[in-house]
């Protein structure tokens, strides 16, 4: 880690388990550092190779960095905002507080109060911004187009998996009602008997409170005689090869914050069908790189998937267009560069009007 004198941004991460925020931080910070930004993390649940400070180093934040009169505390969760307020307003550390909001719902009174105390606010989509009551800037998440890339060998095909069929359709993320895993399974049970060349895979963590939910899905699959063609992978160490092996990715969430998975799929040259939860509708080029249906609309989801299962060539072409779409519009450097403008304004001028 570089000396704290050179650090101008702290990105706290106060959650041990993997989440969409984790994925954002893991991908974004290396890109920000490539742009020359002195940024470190603080907290658990992140890879060891990310630059970070320890809790014991927090008192050093009373000392201003060499290149600015303050630092930016970039929070993405309520507890991170609250801790930033403690550091800035109680301990009087020279910090400016920035919050990135991905929520697609009305905020609680407590969250609105926290947000009102921020020096600047970023929304990850126009939709999430519509729920904010303060001035904000919309900066959509980007994707690392080098980490997520098209397949380039046999290991990036269905042949490497040992699964039956010629094409894979997948659904990744935590196995739970909110993520719409049941909608995907229901669609596969209905569609796969009509399309024998396709096999479905599901990857994601099953938490104890969702074990009954997952067990019921597996029982439904077994009752349909499709256990060999609708396969639960569990959590995998590296999901990237699985995106490359897919011909179609499905994101059937009923509720979502931002939702990176369609970007990860499209960056891997995989077509996407998604609900309009989160920012999905702002990511997918309708009818070009995939299809978007209303959240919770089972028939719409099933029919959108069926169109690609019936025409794998179109799915493959949509995936190729998806790669070009992501490279042009959602490369990670675009997000990092946009955040640089926010940081620079805070570091030079301080608050820009979102704090009363």
Summarize the topology.
Layout: E1 9-12, H1 20-34, E2 39-42, E3 71-75, H2 78-90, E4 95-101, H3 109-116, E5 120-123, H4 126-129, E6 137-138, E7 167-172, H5 181-191, E8 198-203, H6 211-223, E9 230-234, H7 240-245, E10 248-251, H8 261-267, E11 271-275, H9 280-283, E12 290-293, H10 298-310, H11 312-329, H12 332-349
Parallel strand pairs: 1-2, 1-3, 3-4, 4-5, 5-6, 7-8, 7-10, 8-9, 10-11, 11-12
Helix pairs in contact: 1-12, 5-10, 8-11
Structure, described:
This protein is of the alpha/beta class and 356 residues long. The protein has 2 domains: 4-142 and 332-349, Glycogen Phosphorylase B (Rossmann fold, 3-Layer(aba) Sandwich); 154-329, Rossmann fold, CATH 3.40.50.2000. The chain is 37% helix and 16% strand. Strands 2-1-3-4-5-6 form a 6-stranded parallel sheet, with helices on both faces. Strands 9-8-7-10-11-12 form a 6-stranded parallel sheet, sandwiched between helices. Mean pLDDT is 93; it is low at 350-356.
Q: For the largest beta sheet, what order do the strands appear in spatially? A: 2-1-3-4-5-6
Radius of gyration from the CA trace?
21 Å
Gap between N and C termini, in Å?
36 Å
Fraction of helical residues: 25-40%
Tally of individual helices: 12
Structural category: alpha/beta
Largest sheet composition: 6 strands, parallel
Instruction: Examine the coordinates and then state which fold CATH places here, giving the name of the CATH topology of the largest domain.
Output: Rossmann fold
CATH class of the largest domain: Alpha Beta
The H/E string reads EHEEHEHEHEEHEHEHEHEHEHHH
Total number of beta strands: 12
Net shape: elongated
Instruction: Kindly give the count of domains.
Output: 2
What is the CATH H-level superfamily of the largest domain? Glycogen Phosphorylase B
Mean of residue pLDDT values: 93
Uncertain residue segments: 350-356
Second rung of CATH, namely the architecture of the largest domain: 3-Layer(aba) Sandwich
Strand content: 15-25%
């Amino acid at each position: 880690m570089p000396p704290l004198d050179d650090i101008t941004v702290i990105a706290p991460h106060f959650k041990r388990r993997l989440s969409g925020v984790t994925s954002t931080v893991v991908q974004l910070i290396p890109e920000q550092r490539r742009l020359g930004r002195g940024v470190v993390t603080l907290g658990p649940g992140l890879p060891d190779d990310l630059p970070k400070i320890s809790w014991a180093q927090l008192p050093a934040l009373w000392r201003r960095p060499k290149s600015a009169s303050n630092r930016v505390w970039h929070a993405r969760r309520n507890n991170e905002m609250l801790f930033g307020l403690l550091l800035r307003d109680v301990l009087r550390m020279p910090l400016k507080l920035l919050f990135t909001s991905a929520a697609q719902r009305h905020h609680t009174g407590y969250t609105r109060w926290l947000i009102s105390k921020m020096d600047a606010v970023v929304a990850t989509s126009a939709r999430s911004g519509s729920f904010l009551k303060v001035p904000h800037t919309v900066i959509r998440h980007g994707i690392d187009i080098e980490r997520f890339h098209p397949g380039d060998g046999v290991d990036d095909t269905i042949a490497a998996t040992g699964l039956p069929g010629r094409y894979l359709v997948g659904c990744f993320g935590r196995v739970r009602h909110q993520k719409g895993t049941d909608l995907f399974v229901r669609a596969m049970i209905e569609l796969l008997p009509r399309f024998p060349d396709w096999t479905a895979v599901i990857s994601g963590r099953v938490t104890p409170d969702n074990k009954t939910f997952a067990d019921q899905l597996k029982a439904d699959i077994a009752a349909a005689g499709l256990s060999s063609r609708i396969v639960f992978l569990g959590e995998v160490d590296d999901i990237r090869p699985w995106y490359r092996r897919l011909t179609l990715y499905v994101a059937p969430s009923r509720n979502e914050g931002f939702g990176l998975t369609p970007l990860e799929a499209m960056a891997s040259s995989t077509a996407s069908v998604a609900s309009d939860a989160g920012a999905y509708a702002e990511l997918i080029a309708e009818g070009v790189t995939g299809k978007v249906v209303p959240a919770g609309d089972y028939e719409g989801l099933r029919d959108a998937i069926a169109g690609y299962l019936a025409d794998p060539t179109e799915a493959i072409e949509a995936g190729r267009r998806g790669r070009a779409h992501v490279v042009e519009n959602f490369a990670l450097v675009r997000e990092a560069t946009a955040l640089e403008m926010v940081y620079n304004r805070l570091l030079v001028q301080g608050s820009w009007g979102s704090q009363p």
